[in-house]
Amino acid sequence: MIEPGQSPRRHRGRTARDEAAEQTRQKILDAAMVEFGAKGYSGARTAGIAARAGVNQQLIAYYFGGKQGLLDELRRRWSTRQDAAVPAESTFAESLRAYLDLTLDHMDWARLVVWQALGDWSGGEESRETQRQRLEEGVRRTRDRQQAGELTDAVSPEFVVLLAHLVAFAPVAMPQIVQDLLGVAPDSPDYRQLCREQLTTLLTPAECPETQETG
């Protein structure tokens, strides 16, 4: 309780120095995401990241241990964001909407994923195993939805997960083809809505039309 005449005290454990350090860390992470997206992990340089963030290059080593540490922290934060955006109880339509928005609202991350798909992978077997586990969880959820009658079982759950990834990353990997085939801008809300409607229509059992998304 603050007595009359007393000044409010800063919350213990959170000082101005702590806040400044967190702001610096965030600036470095934001800059790293742009650099990794533009140049890939191998092409990005800590000097370029520091210059973009407007900080001393030594701070990258101080806060993250180097370029690999930066990537590891970005992956950790992305995993947390993805879990929050797509809860386990989501329907397929809800999950697809969230995954499209999450991917296409963060194009630098999406570009980094494409770089990794082309062979610019860093992080070793542990990182690959984390990715495999996430994909397996997606397949498990899809199989559960099929067994519940939400999705058709005429398509393998693995292929359903692949389709969701393909439509999410097509605007990043092949924007011209998206534009020419569909006649919509790859980064537009129209593309996202079209993907949701078409995939839901393709994968909804004929006897359950009420589960199809209408808008």
TrEMBL record:
<dbReference type="Pfam" id="PF17926">
    <property type="entry name" value="TetR_C_21"/>
</dbReference>
<dbReference type="GO" id="GO:0006355">
    <property type="term" value="P:regulation of DNA-templated transcription"/>
</dbReference>
<dbReference type="InterPro" id="IPR036271">
    <property type="entry name" value="Tet_transcr_reg_TetR-rel_C_sf"/>
</dbReference>
<dbReference type="InterPro" id="IPR001647">
    <property type="entry name" value="HTH_TetR"/>
</dbReference>
<dbReference type="GO" id="GO:0003677">
    <property type="term" value="F:DNA binding"/>
</dbReference>
<feature type="DNA-binding region" description="H-T-H motif">
    <location>
        <begin position="45"/>
        <end position="64"/>
    </location>
</feature>
<feature type="compositionally biased region" description="Basic and acidic residues">
    <location>
        <begin position="125"/>
        <end position="147"/>
    </location>
</feature>
<feature type="region of interest" description="Disordered">
    <location>
        <begin position="1"/>
        <end position="22"/>
    </location>
</feature>
<feature type="region of interest" description="Disordered">
    <location>
        <begin position="125"/>
        <end position="149"/>
    </location>
</feature>
<dbReference type="Pfam" id="PF00440">
    <property type="entry name" value="TetR_N"/>
</dbReference>
<feature type="domain" description="HTH tetR-type">
    <location>
        <begin position="22"/>
        <end position="82"/>
    </location>
</feature>
<protein>
    <recommendedName>
        <fullName>HTH tetR-type domain-containing protein</fullName>
    </recommendedName>
</protein>
<dbReference type="InterPro" id="IPR050109">
    <property type="entry name" value="HTH-type_TetR-like_transc_reg"/>
</dbReference>
<dbReference type="InterPro" id="IPR009057">
    <property type="entry name" value="Homeodomain-like_sf"/>
</dbReference>
<keyword id="KW-0238">DNA-binding</keyword>
<dbReference type="InterPro" id="IPR041467">
    <property type="entry name" value="Sco4008_C"/>
</dbReference>
